[in-house]
Amino acid sequence: MLLLLQTSPLFFTALAAILGLTVGSFLNVVIHRLPRMMERDWHAQCAELNGQTPEAAPRYNLLVPRSACPHCGHAIGAAENIPVLSYLLLRGKCKGCGVAISPRYPVVEAISGILSSFAAWHFGFGLAGLGAIVFVWALIALTFIDLDTQLLPDDITLPLLWLGLLLNLNGAFTSLPNAVIGAVVGYLVLWIVYWVFKLATGKEGMGYGDFKLLATIGAWLGWTMLPLVIMLSSVVGAVVGISLILFAKHGRNIPIPFGPYLAGGGLIALFWGQTLTQSYLQLLAP
Hints:
Elements: H1 2-7, H2 9-49, H3 85-89, H4 104-123, H5 127-149, H6 154-167, H7 176-201, H8 208-221, H9 226-247, H10 259-284
Helix pairs in contact: 2-4, 2-5, 4-5, 5-6, 5-10, 6-7, 6-8, 7-8, 8-10, 9-10
């Protein structure tokens, strides 16, 4: 099997697609449950700080309880949990009560499968390829959690940061010095922007989770990729934000999560960062 993965890019790409679809199904659970797990922990901590005994609550984590329809409580069986295919066979409706299932579930699964297979094809079988697939999964989860809750959980960003540094011990994506500097600079750049904006306006322009996410991207790709990531995420974020205000009547005072744009910029830099940077430098060359 190991020899086949090393010698057959097509086999590795296909396997990554299947694995990505399967993990995408689990990512839906993470996206839905992790913020609620964090909220339960916060309530318990607040109760302890107030000298109260936290209320006993049913066990709730990424594995328990079993996934079920939020409307009728119908337990999701194995045949109903096949990525993308089950949604199509059920015609987007719960088997128990017929209520429509959000199309976002198969969308997350499909995105995970497509990006996982592309990462496998782009990097090939090896440390970089396997690492890129994990990086993709984490950014997908962070993107949708931030869209839903405007949170970027430390439970994902911090382990991902350390994993990036560990992978770059052997130069999987960049040298270790570049990765360490990338983590430091990634955090400090947005931290400085945050405080400049706050001192100038009295408002918070972004959250600390954004600092940690850019630090994580810097730890994976190195500090030289950060200007590209910041430029891409800022341009896309500005275009989307202005479009929401003009066409969707999105209030100016309603915050827009920046994490998805950082994640998108990080993915573009992961796959095409070197090519884009070299093309840009060639344009500037006399």
